């Protein structure tokens, strides 16, 4: 009997400490499984592999209402794969709901300055729009400067500004939308 199977039996037997022993043993395999599942998802998936692993683990080990014990390590991982599939389906359904913008069309927003003779004029328009953005959302403007002009990643820009990556990512998305609209409207 493998260590994982022994711990799964202990969990089924009601041992309150067994779940704590299981996660370190199966975490890397669950993470690989989650990464593989997420790779099959369409672009724009916001769920991270770590969050998927944790949610699936809680559903598997934290559910008191299971009717049958874990038969083996393979049984556990098959159940984990199914739990991850269900979590992804639930997330997709939530995203399609009207409260999450499911009825809206997604448009990618690029801050590309075209090459060629109009490049300097376009760059000047972008600079002016960026100055206007800075009066409304200074932090978002700083994220744009670091990302667009310095070539930093979201994580690097976040570190430079002392904010979380998620905040920097939100600022970047907002600023791109704001700037595209400002450049499209010409003022």
What is the CATH-assigned architecture of the largest domain? Orthogonal Bundle
Enter the CATH topology name of the largest domain. Rna Polymerase Sigma Factor, Chain: A
Describe the sheet with the most strands.
Answer: none
**Total tally of structural domains:** 2
CATH class category label of the largest domain? Mainly Alpha
Structural class: mainly alpha
Strand content: under 5%
What order do the helices and strands follow? HHHHHHHH
Describe this entry's structure for a reader.
It is a single chain. By secondary structure, this protein is mainly alpha-helical. It has 2 domains: 98 residues, Rna Polymerase Sigma Factor, Chain: A, CATH 1.10.1740; 67 residues, Arc Repressor Mutant, subunit A (Orthogonal Bundle). 68% of the residues lie in helices and 0% in strands. The protein has 8 helices and no strands. Helix 5 packs across helix 8. The N and C termini lie far apart (71 Å). About 5% of the residues have low confidence.
Question: Which features does this protein show?
Answer:
187 residues, mainly alpha, Rna Polymerase Sigma Factor, Chain: A, Arc Repressor Mutant, subunit A, 8 helices, 68% helix, 0% strand
Architecture blueprint of SSEs:
Layout: H1 3-12, H2 18-39, H3 49-61, H4 73-96, H5 119-136, H6 138-149, H7 154-161, H8 165-185
Structure described in brief:
By secondary structure, the protein is mainly alpha-helical. It is built from eight helices and no strands.
């Amino acid at each position: 009997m493998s260590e994982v199977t022994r711990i799964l039996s202990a969990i089924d037997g009601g041992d309150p400490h067994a779940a704590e022993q299981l996660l370190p043993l199966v975490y890397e395999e669950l993470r690989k499984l989650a990464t593989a599942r997420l790779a099959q998802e369409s672009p724009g998936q916001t769920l991270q592999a770590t969050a998927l692993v944790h949610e699936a683990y809680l559903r598997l080990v934290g559910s008191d209402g299971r009717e049958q014990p874990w038969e083996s390590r393979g049984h556990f991982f098959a159940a984990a794969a199914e739990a991850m599939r269900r979590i992804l389906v639930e997330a997709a359904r939530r995203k399609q709901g009207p409260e999450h913008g499911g009825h809206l069309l997604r448009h990618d927003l690029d801050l590309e300055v075209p090459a060629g003779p109009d490049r300097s004029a376009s760059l000047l328009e972008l600079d002016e729009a960026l100055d206007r953005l800075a009066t409304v959302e200074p932090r978002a403007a700083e994220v744009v400067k670091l990302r667009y002009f310095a070539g930093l990643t979201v994580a690097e820009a976040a570190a430079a500004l002392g904010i979380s990556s998620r905040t920097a990512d939100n600022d970047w998305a907002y600023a791109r939308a704001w700037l595209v609209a400002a450049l499209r409207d010409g003022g």
